Amino acid sequence: QVQLVESGGGLVQAGGSLSLSCVASGSFWRINAMGWYRQVPGMQRELVAAITSGGSTNYGDSVKGRFTISRDNAKNTVYLQMNSLKPEDTAVYYCAAGHAATTTPSQYWGQGTQVTVSS
Length: 119
Fold this sequence. Notes:
Layout: E1 2-7, E2 10-13, E3 18-26, E4 33-39, E5 46-51, E6 57-59, E7 67-72, E8 77-82, E9 91-98, E10 108-109, E11 113-118
Parallel strand pairs: 2-11
Antiparallel strand pairs: 1-3, 3-8, 4-5, 4-9, 5-6, 7-8, 9-10, 9-11
């Protein structure tokens, strides 16, 4: 089993930046893909960004050019650097991970961290 713990959410003004982190523990050596999704109440969870152990990345269209995903395999950690934040980026952000080499991981989930962007 794999446990994911997110940190770094909070409140920021539009145009600002935030960085999220997610640490994997447990059977993390079996993890290939890690990523971030977000969800607004009443809406479907959407992919923000994901990265495989080989470095392949995938970004949601709404965040391309503003967000950057990276990972430190030695620390079992994935990061999401969010720049030029907009009010529509407000959501609960979830860390996700999976064993498959896919850029849409969904096997394991974190508890979520709130990101609020004020206008």
